[in-house]
Write a structure and sequence with these properties.
Radius of gyration of chain A: 21 Å
InterPro entries (chain A): UCP028704_OpgC
Transmembrane segments (chain A): 81-103, 137-157, 164-186, 192-210, 226-245, 265-287, 307-326, 332-352
Distance between the termini of chain B: 67 Å
Low-confidence stretches of chain B: 1-45, 288-297
CATH architecture of chain B: 3-Layer(aba) Sandwich
Strand content of chain A: under 5%
Shape of chain A: globular
Oligomer: heterodimer
Number of helices of chain B: 11
Keywords (chain A): Membrane, Transmembrane, Transmembrane helix
CATH topology of chain B: Rossmann fold
Order of helices and strands of chain B: HHHEHEHEHEHHEHEHH
Pfam families (chain A): OpgC_C (PF10129)
Protein name (chain A): OpgC domain-containing protein
CATH class of chain B: Alpha Beta
Strand order of the largest sheet of chain B: 1-6-5-4-2-3
Structural class of chain B: alpha/beta
Amino acid sequence: MREPNAVDFWRGIALITIFINHIPGNVFQNYTYSQYGISDAAELFVFLAGWSIGIATRGRDGVPEPALRTVLRLLSRMVEVYRAQLVITAIALAMLAGAALYLDNPLLVEWHNAGPIFSDPIQATVGWVTLLHQLGFFNILPLYVVLLGLAPAFVLLSRLHLGLAIGISVLVYAVSLVFEINIPSWPVEGHWFFNPLCWQLLLVLGFAAHEWRRSSERFLAWRRRLMPLGVVIVIVGAVLSWFNLRPDPLAVPEPRLLFIFDKSYLSPARLVHFLGVMLAFQAVFGLVQPRAGWLTRQLAGLGRNSLAVFSVGSVASLGAQLIRFWTGGGFATDVFVVGCGLASLSFTAWFVEWRSRSPRPSSAA
Amino acid sequence: MALSLPPALLGGVSLAMLACLGFAVQAQSTTPTPPVQAQPQPALAEIPALQATAPSPDAPDPSLSPECRVPGSKLYTLAKLKAVKKALLEHRAVQVLTIGSNSGGIGTAATYPVRLEDALTRSLPDIEVTVESRGVSGEIAFGAAERLRNQVAEIEPDLVVWQVGGNDALARVDIEDFSQSLAETVAWIKSHGIDVVLVDPQYTASLAKDDYYRQFVQAIQKVAEREQVPLVQRYEAMRYLATRAISALKGDTAQAGAGFRLADLGYRCMAEHVTRAITVSLLQPDIAGPMVPPAAH
């Protein structure tokens, strides 16, 4: 088990933020940073995933591991994430159907795009297993599956030249934005909630940031120098978001995705805002760690086990929504469901680490 | 053992019940219906393509198929649809964007958007109608309204038919927040010369006494009234169909699954109900003299 570090710490914060924001209407939602900016925890999560790929594909001595091992490592992670997505989607469907039966309320099987799976099962079963049909709030892991599938190409390109990997990534992003290219959803018309062709840029930037941080003094110097710019961007984002100011998507010039605030396509405004957030808060971990050791260890624990924690968080947030619906909501309910949810995230992190070190008598010292 | 019925028998029983229900509704609704011979209205003369007559508001609307027959007063509130009317007058294709579930009912051959396209094409012969559909994930009070704006901008339809409120009502979001978000979004769509028809959430017996849910449905009615957009009162219509079903089954409604069958019927009827609300809205006379179409951008 590694010591708390900034990546795990921030990933822990992203996991908690995503959990709370996936219980719409709960009182704690107003206190997550997503409410005070143009970008949100999804950006943080994907950026850190790229950063972690940078760590994972080098040995302890910092030497890049063999190409084949990198490819296999990333593809096996992709399979793991895909498996997690299938499991949590299946559980979510059973929760919705079970709640609908128990509360005698057919509206519940319609919730979060689950409707077609029950009304049109032949097509929709193919749809959800191939990730073309995604339940509401269960759309980050499908993005992650595709990103992990693309990652080997970018990592290997970066070994030729990091600039080449970034250049191709920016090109794919720009073409997808200008021509509005996204993976279609099926059987329901529409597109993926998170467009992998755009969001891959954030993964590659996270990876590049890790590489630069290792080798480039200039990167570290500029990161410090640009911190005030980051603060300005965060303030502008907070003002825009507070007063609900955003471009009118029918009034902007073509190609309109360059100008609007769109989450699916990670429009440039969101990207710039997110980079501003990174610059502005780069020093926070160093400040928090010595003063709040317990908190840092908890958050880093969540971050170290992010896939398991995210999966449990997804199911827990749906459970919390069902409880809020059933009881009618209210402050006490919110405290209860969010409290139980956070405890279950924490337990998950502990449990995964306990399981990985505990029941192996043969390797015990 | 006594409780474990073979699935074939269960299927047969439910089929028979559905048939009874359909028959009963048909039998009831055909008897009291006065022969409606509506006068051709001025608006109708303006739009030669429109195949519709305004029904009497309180009798079950005979132009609807028997299982979906609901009086107009329980099915819709009307308002003008300027953009669609303009397209009809110019004999131009009409593009419709439906937002929300695309279910056409369990086991039906066609989805709701396909049925809607079909029904609108039948009501508006000579005019090409295309229907695109998009689901919405999330709550309009928390971000889904933004995504909806982007979807509208992507497709730039003449008319948006929006099944609204389902996600927000289940998430029990604050009704004020929801109403405000809805009103702003509707006003925004209209400000770009695009018509809107709202469809309110479904009725189900277990929510009939839920105050929050009823207030929620009323909040949508208020927004529709204030923003002057037609509203398909799915809640009222399904409640009406549910009472019919209860009397048809002679009080024997406590069996499990009655709510699920009603929800299914709601989806089967939605395309017809929406089409009816649109065509009758198109018959709305223009009070301000000759129609001045809004400048569409």
